[in-house]
Write a sequence for this structure.
């Protein structure tokens, strides 16, 4: 097992380098350099000023040199400084946004698990019942509804007409002056709509997945055995069937690790949440290479780790994979 | 894909923000016009509302909504309008534009331009202090100048300062600059934010903490910046024009304009810019009118249809005039701006001194358009409804940038009208960077719809002079007219306003005759402010020029300032 993990870790290095080379190349293939995005169509900016900015950011060097410069910094865990005019270290820009995005994504993932698994199990157990049909309809409506539209609608109802919830942002203006409990309540009120909405859209996938797993398991011989033993239906379903049906879900969770750091641009923009999605989108539009590369690297590393964890957990639970 | 960076819904607002950058002087204008001083206007109100405001008093918070976030609060390093908008409240220039758009002293108490136009002497205000308590002197001005021309400073605005031959601080309160050649926009260029030399001298400006924690001389003191959320400023009790009545100014970042509009209605923000749709259709009910004051005045910007003059089809002036006759501007303003704009006839704002109202106009006239096209040799010989010449049908593509709905819809209206005179137009909408790099800079476009900001100084050398047609420069339509070239050169060397007026009026006559652009419209700026704010006096410069005189009567104040340490 140790050798297997070691081998997988070793293989990750060339894969990672390949990802960075391709990302770097594709990023530079897109029209427009960061300096140009800042200066194009501005009468007061002369061509000389542009050349000067290019030299300051090292954009006048050949592409492969720029790549190796970037890589050299990366091995020292230095993502460089942003090319946008704030010129801040990329780490700093990512770190101030990462916690918010992680927090919201984890909350919504927990919510999805808590709602989707029971829905999946119950629809499988009572297949074609009214409950099954109703929840199927519900989760697909959630899947199909454009979130931005629903978000605006709910903001209008709860924020403007009823005035129960704040509309956007994460904190009220007087947040600093609230007590600890007040802060928790304030944050909670701001989070209700974003977390509910992002969970709503994600219910369909997991609940359907859970339902089909469960249906598969229920058909197995050992379930018939369990029933034949005279076990209560509750025990059959929740002890014997559910445990086996949950295993693949664990794998899916492993694969969703990289998703946790990615924020949705639409979502964050509508709710004015300063998360990773907006940072990434803004960086791409401004061709802010170091920030984009920084986010891509984190995403790549997490994807690789997520894959590894998924594979390892599979190997742990399913001996057939380990046999070599 | 770990990132759910879907491009559909978000695109409009964000790209609009980026394309907003092309409007050079936007931020600069805000910065210059924010701080003019006018006598405290007790109870001035927008027409139609009772003026019973009572005397000005201190307190309350103004919350402004913004789609974009500042990038850097050292304004010379920033090129986005949000940075300049916020920095404009924290810093001062030596000069500024007042409410009537006249250049007046700001940190300079007075200034003189020598007869030759080569030397400008600024007499600085005494007793002005930086927000950290240090005195402001000519050394700060000299430092700012040196930073601007230092090749290691990543500023986009060095050009005006590279014209300076010599700059000196004659004494702590006198600053003198000498130019190589007379340069009319020189004086206005000193509206640039003066930086605190004592905090920056000898340090790397790119890594300065001032970028996120600025120290200026302006009416508001920087308090806090929460990335992606808000920038908070507090009143400067020692401001040299008197402390602002408002205690706190909060710049809230809300990237989605629909959300911002809801925040406005729910009381989360006090002030924002409305879209024509919001202004005309979504705010005309009683409750809104009771709670908010809407303002409307022409923006400092115009939108145009520009021809690539290197394209064979558009070489003939009669063809360009025909296109101009075939377009109904009134219809575009009604349909796209919902009437909230006016016709553009040239590159200046109607009503300003540089604007020439008597140029040739092109009222909608399809018959005349067809005649001109026929004169130019375009006839429908094969009866397919599209004109042709030498066997080639008259087809061209209008390109514009993605994310600007108003431009896209303008293009559609033009498409339909040109179809009526036998010209087949296609529309292509392209992402901003690719649009500029692949089409505008390489001159591979046929016609484009774009906009310019109208600067306070009428110098438009960079857009119209024939030498400015290299890739990346702004005469991308390749306009060439020797008389215009000579006038532009003379215009920027002339200081006398009457002389300059003649020069720029003549340029407008030529442009109207030659139609290198079809000037389309000047849109209206549509700001809205919560009704508890009094003292707002709309003027040529807009409404924010006297922000420090805005106030809220005690009974209507909403926010208490809890802790203020300055």
């Amino acid at each position: 097992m140790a050798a297997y993990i070691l081998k997988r870790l070793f293989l990750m290095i060339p894969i990672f380098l390949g990802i960075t080379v391709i990302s770097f190349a594709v990023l530079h293939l897109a029209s427009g350099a960061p300096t140009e995005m800042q200066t194009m169509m501005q009468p007061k900016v002369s061509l000389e000023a542009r050349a000067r900015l290019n030299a300051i950011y090292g954009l006048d060097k050949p592409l492969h040199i720029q790549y190796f410069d970037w890589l050299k910094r990366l091995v020292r865990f230095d993502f460089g400084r942003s090319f946008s005019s704030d010129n801040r270290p990329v780490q700093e820009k990512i770190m101030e946004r990462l916690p918010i995005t992680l927090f919201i994504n984890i909350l919504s993932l927990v919510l999805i698990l808590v709602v989707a698994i029971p829905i999946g199990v119950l629809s499988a157990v009572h297949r074609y019942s009214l409950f099954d049909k109703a929840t199927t309809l519900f989760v697909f409506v959630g899947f199909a509804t454009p979130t931005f539209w629903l978000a605006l609608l709910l903001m209008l109802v709860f924020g403007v007409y009823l005035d129960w919830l704040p509309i956007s942002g994460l904190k009220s203006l007087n947040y600093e002056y609230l007590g600890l409990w007040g802060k928790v309540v304030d944050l909670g009120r701001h989070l209700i709509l974003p977390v509910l909405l992002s969970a709503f859209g994600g219910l369909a996938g997991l609940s359907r997945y859970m339902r089909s797993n469960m249906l598969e398991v229920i058909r197995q011989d050992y379930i018939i055995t369990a029933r034949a033993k005279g076990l209560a239906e509750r025990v059959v379903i929740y002890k014997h069937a559910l445990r086996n049906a949950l295993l693949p879900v664990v794998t899916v969770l492993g694969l969703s690790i990289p998703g946790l750091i990615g924020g949705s641009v639409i979502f964050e923009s509508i709710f004015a949440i300063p998360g990773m999605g907006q940072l990434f989108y803004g960086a791409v539009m401004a061709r802010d290479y170091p920030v984009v590369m920084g986010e891509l690297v984190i995403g790549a590393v997490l994807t690789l780790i997520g894959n590894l964890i998924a594979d390892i957990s599979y190997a742990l639970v399913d001996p057939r994979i380990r046999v070599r | 894909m770990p990132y759910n960076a879907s491009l559909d819904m978000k695109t409009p607002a964000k790209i609009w923000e980026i394309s907003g950058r092309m409007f050079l002087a936007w931020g600069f204008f805000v910065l210059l016009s924010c701080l003019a001083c006018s006598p405290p206007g007790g109870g001035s109100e927008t027409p139609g509302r009772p003026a019973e405001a009572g005397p000005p008093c201190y307190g309350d918070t103004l919350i402004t909504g913004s789609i974009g976030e500042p990038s850097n609060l050292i304004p010379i390093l920033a090129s986005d309008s949000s940075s300049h908008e916020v920095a404009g409240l924290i810093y001062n220039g030596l000069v500024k534009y007042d409410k009537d758009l006249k250049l007046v002293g700001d940190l300079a108490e007075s200034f003189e331009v020598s007869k030759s136009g080569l030397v400008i002497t600024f007499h600085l205000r005494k007793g002005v202090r930086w927000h950290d308590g240090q005195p402001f002197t000519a050394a700060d001005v000299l430092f700012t100048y040196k930073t601007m021309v230092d090749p290691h400073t990543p500023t986009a605005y060095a050009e005006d300062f590279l014209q300076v031959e010599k700059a000196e601080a004659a004494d702590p309160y006198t600053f003198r600059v000498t130019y190589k050649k007379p340069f009319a926009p020189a004086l206005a260029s000193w509206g640039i934010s003066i930086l605190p030399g004592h905090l920056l001298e000898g340090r790397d400006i790119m890594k300065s903490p001032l970028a996120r924690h600025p120290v200026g001389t302006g009416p508001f003191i920087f308090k806090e910046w929460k990335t992606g959320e808000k920038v908070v400023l507090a009143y400067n009790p020692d401001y040299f024009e008197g402390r602002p009545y408002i205690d706190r100014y909060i710049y809230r970042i809300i990237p989605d304009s629909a959300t911002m509009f809801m925040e406005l209605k729910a009381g989360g923000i006090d002030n924002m810019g409305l879209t024509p749709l919001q202004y005309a259709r979504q705010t005309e009910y009683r409750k809104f009118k009771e709670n908010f004051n809407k303002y409307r005045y022409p923006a400092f910007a115009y939108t145009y249809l520009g021809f690539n003059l290197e394209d064979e089809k558009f070489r003939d002036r009669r063809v360009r005039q025909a296109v101009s006759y075939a377009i109904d501007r009134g219809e575009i303003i009604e349909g796209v701006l919902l009437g909230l704009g006016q016709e553009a006839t040239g590159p200046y704002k109607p009503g300003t001194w540089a604007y020439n109202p008597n140029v040739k106009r092109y009222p909608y006239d399809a018959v005349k358009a067809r005649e001109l096209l026929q004169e130019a040799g375009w006839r429908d010989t094969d009866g397919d409804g599209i004109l042709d010449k030498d066997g080639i049908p008259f087809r061209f593509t209008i390109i514009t940038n993605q994310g600007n709905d108003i431009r896209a819809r303008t293009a559609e209206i033009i498409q339909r009208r040109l179809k009526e005179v036998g010209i087949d137009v296609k529309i292509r909408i392209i992402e901003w960077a690719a649009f500029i790099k692949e089409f505008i800079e390489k001159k591979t476009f046929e016609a484009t719809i774009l906009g310019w900001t109208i600067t306070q100084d009428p110098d438009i050398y960079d857009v119209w002079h024939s030498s400015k047609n290299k890739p990346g420069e702004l005469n991308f339509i390749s306009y060439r007219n020797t008389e215009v070239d000579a006038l532009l050169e003379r215009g920027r060397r002339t200081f006398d306003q009457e002389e300059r007026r003649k020069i720029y009026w003549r340029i407008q006559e030529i442009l109207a005759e030659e139609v290198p652009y079809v000037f389309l419209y000047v849109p209206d700026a549509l700001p809205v402010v919560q009704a508890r704010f009094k003292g707002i006096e709309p003027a040529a410069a807009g409404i924010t020029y006297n922000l420090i005189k805005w106030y809220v009567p005690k009974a209507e104040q909403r926010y208490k300032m809890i802790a203020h340490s300055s």
Chain A touches chain B through 77 residues (CB under 8 Å). Chain A has two domains: 2-75, 99-317. Chain A has a mean pLDDT of 84. Chain A is about 75% helix and 0% strand.
